[in-house]
Amino acid sequence: MDSNFGNIKFAVGTDDKLTYSADHFGSAQFFLIYTLNLQTKEIKLQKTIVNKTPEEHRHGDPQKALSISTLLQGIPVLIGRYMGKNITRIRKKFIPIIASFDLIDKSLVILPDIIPEIRSELEKPGGIPKKIIHLRS
After folding, report:
1. Rounded mean pLDDT of 2-11?
2. Which residue numbers delimit the Dinitrogenase iron-molybdenum cofactor biosynthesis domain (predicted)?
3. Distance (Å, rounded) from C-alpha 19 to C-alpha 79?
4. How far apart are CA 68 and CA 63, in angstroms?
């Protein structure tokens, strides 16, 4: 969280930039990077990152988790339709949010409603696993 401006950065895993990836978050072709202003609740797309991390050698490959963590360093919230086995590894650095629907735009409307829950997880000390938050319509 950027406390100077009251913003939270989050990454969305997608293959088409409209819907969540049908695969696990870390296998998405792109990550859309947004900021959520905590005061105004305004959400802005900042950039798109192409996922060039290596393919997994096996399901839940720790190297894949490390690659995603490095690529998305400084972005504390990850949102996807599905999270893979590596969710247990990333929860010490990131807050995973699992959407119960496919459309990204729908999340952008609902996300401000869970700001208190996100803040609570952000306040946990480093190294403590963050709770998995479910985003429901």
Report:
1. 76
2. 23-98
3. 11
4. 9
CA atoms within 13 A on the CB side of 39: 5
Structural domains of the chain, ranges and CATH numbers in brackets? 7-135 (3.30.420.130)
Q: Pairing between strand 7-14 and 30-37?
A: antiparallel
The token pair that represents 76 in the structure block:
């504390």
Coil, strand or helix: which one is 33?
strand
SS3 13: strand
User: Is residue 71 helix, strand or coil?
Assistant: helix
Q: What φ, ψ does residue 121 adopt, rounded to 5°?
A: -70, -35
Distance (Å, rounded) from C-alpha 105 to C-alpha 121? 23
Q: For 60-107, how does the pLDDT look when each residue is reduced to its tens digit (9 = 90+)?
A: 677 878 899 999 999 999 999 999 888 888 899 999 999 999 999 999
